[in-house]
Amino acid sequence: MRSSLLVNMSTPSYASSNFVSAGPNMSICDSHSRIRPSSPGPIEMSPDASAPLEIMRSSPLVPGSVSPALVFVTSTWYTRDEIPSRTGVWFAGNSVGGIVSSLLAYGLGHVHEHLAPWRWMFIVLGAGTFLLGLLLLAFLPDSIATARFLSPRERKAATDRVVVAGLGATDYPAWKWSQMRECAQDPKTWLIAATALLCQIPNGGTQNFANIVITSFGFDALESTLINIPYSVLSIAAIAGTGWAAGRFHSMNCILIALVVLPPIIGSALISHRAALPHRVSLLGYFLLATGPAALPLLLSLVQSNFRGVTKKMSMTALLFVAYCAGNIAGPQLFVAAEAPTYDTAFRAILISYSLVVGLALGLRIYLDSVNRRRQKTEGVLGSASASGAVIGGKIVDAHDPAGGVRLAPEDYEDVTDWNTFGFRYRL
C-alpha cells in the first residue's frame, strides 16, 4: 500500500501540458531533437525526439495507483461522515499540483541551459516525489493495526470507530470472489462507472489542450501558463467545498455532482460560440470549466461511503479508474486538428457529456433512495446513512448517535458487503 503512494507529488497531466508551451519558442526536446509546437508548418521530429514522448506516455503508469490506494486509506481510517471531506482534501492536491507545475513551467521556460525545460520539470518533480516517498515509507502505516503512533488501546478504539460508523475493519483483507460478483451485479456500480467516464472525457481533453485553447483567446504561451493558476484555484475551492457539503449532508452527494457540472455546461456553450463573442467572455467560459473536476471526488466519496466489503469496494474503485482512464484517452481525440484553435467538436462533446452527467447523477439518486425505502420496509427499521448499519444480532444504531450504546461482538468485525449488512442505508 505504501509503495503505491510514493508518487503522490507527480502531476504528469498538468506538467506535460504546461511545459510544452511554457515559452513562445520553446521546444520540449533538447538541441539535438526538436519538436516545435509554435511552428506554423508541419511538426518535424528527428529520430532522437522519441525519448521525451516515451517518457510522457509512460509517466502516468505508476501514479495511476495513487488514487485507488488513497481511496483504501481513507475508508480504512475515517467514518462515512468524514470520508467526503477527506477525499476532497487529497483530491484537491491535483489542482495544487496544477498551480505548482504552472509556476515551475513559467520559471523554467526562461532557463536557457544545455538541459531542455521539459527535462528540468521531470528532475524537479521527480526529486520531490522521491523525498515524499521516503517519508511515506517511514511514517504511513499499512493499516490501523500497524500504526506505530497509536497505543494498543487507541488502535482498538480507531478500529471500533470505523466498524460502528465507517465501512468496517480492513486490517486483514482477503480477496472474495463472491464480493466481486456482487459488485458486477449491483446497478449502482454501472451508474457510477458511466458517470465517471462522462466526467473524465471533458477533463481529459481540456487538461491536454488547455494552453492551446487559452492562446486562441489572444494570450501568448507564457501568459496561458499563468492563467491556469486561477483555474486551479477555482477547482480547489469547488473540490474542497463540495467535499465538506457532501460530508455534512447525507442526501446531497448526487445533487452536488449535478450542480458542479452546470457551470462547465455553460462554459462549453460559450466557448463553442467564441466566434461571435469577445475574448473576455470566452475566457470566462474557460474558467467556468474549473468546477467540473469536483465531480470525480464526489463519485469517489459515493464509492467509499456506499460500498461495504473490501473486495467489493476495491473492485468498484478499480472499475471507476478504468472509466477514468478511458475518459482520459477519449477526451483528447475530440480535439480535431483541423478545427484548431476553436475545436468546435470538442466543446460540443463537453456540453453533451456534462449534460448526461446531470441525468445520470439524478438517476443514481433516485435509485439509491428507492433501495433505501425498500430496505427500510423489508427490515422494519429506519437504519442509518451515517453508521455502518446494525451490525449483527438485531442491534440498531441510532441515526443521530451512531456510536452510542453499541457493544461490539467478534462477528461485527467480519468483512461483509452493504447488501448483507442489516440497517445499512445509502448516502444520496
UniProtKB/TrEMBL annotation:
UniProt xrefs under Gene3D superfamilies: MFS general substrate transporter like domains
Keyword Transmembrane helix: yes
Name listed for the protein in its UniProt record: Major facilitator superfamily (MFS) profile domain-containing protein
A GO-annotated cellular component: membrane
Membrane-spanning parts: 90-108, 120-140, 254-271, 283-303, 315-335, 347-368
Domain of life (superkingdom): Eukaryota
InterPro entries given in the database record: MFS, MFS_trans_sf
One Pfam family recorded for the sequence: MFS_1
GO molecular function: transmembrane transporter activity
Main location: membrane
Keywords per UniProt: Membrane, Transmembrane, Transmembrane helix, Transport
Organism: Xylaria grammica
